Every structure is written in structure tokens, then in C-alpha cells.
Amino acid sequence: MLKGDAWGRPNDRIGVGGVIDALSPEARRYFAAGGLGILIGDGALNYRQEKIFETFYA
Predict the structure, then answer these.
(1) Alpha-carbon torsion, ordered 18, 24, 28, 34, to 10 deg
(2) What range defines the domain where residue 35 resides?
């Protein structure tokens, strides 16, 4: 997180974050066998990595 002092606005904030996430082999087998989770488990999962990038400015 950066503070706005550098551009003359000391109350401003800016931040950046990112993550690359994927299911473990054990979790893949569990869901493929019909296991259910809070958000996933419908039997039609895409096993590619999930890539998330977020920014904020306040």
C-alpha cells in the first residue's frame, strides 16, 4: 500500500494484490467423485488455475 504523501494527498491510499490459486490433486479427486463444497462441487469443474488481480484507491 502506498500513501498519498508522494503526490500531495496525504489521506489517499493505493494498493495492489494478486494470487494464483488451484485445487490440489486430492481436492480434484474428491470433487470428481461427487464431493460437495460451500462454493464448488457441481461435477463440472474447470481445473485450470485461477488468477486474481485487484487494485484499490481510497
Answers:
(1) -90
(2) 2-57
